[in-house]
Amino acid sequence: MTATEEEITQRVKENDVPRTDRRTKVATQVGELAQRRSEVAEQLASVEQELCDVLAESRSIISLDELARFTDVPAEDLGRWRGDEKPHRTKRKKPTAGSSRSRNLGQPNPMRNTSANGAPPASAESAVSEPGTPVQNDAEAHS
Question: Where are the alpha helices (DSSP H) in the chain?
């Protein structure tokens, strides 16, 4: 004798309830923690701005070295909070010989590693995706 539709529905529900409860608990916890994190980040940004303002106003009154000595806060941190640090610049890659496509239109580039059909090998392809998003390879994308 086979199970009735009602029995099957009931069995599926009974099977799914524990998993649904765990998923709900995790989702709720993540939501609460994300909210707390956001609030703390806002508080930190506010405190850092206040530190920056006070340190900027104090330039003519007290040196960073003196403040560091009196407060046990490293002078490097005080300077960073005051905005003394120059932004870090990233180095650009220098173009390699033959990398400009406009110079060799229609000409194959001997520096480029290509497969027999002219396409770059799979390992040379770069994929950009959102964090947490699975990256598809060509085989998956075309199936």
Answer: 5-57, 64-71, 75-82, 138-141
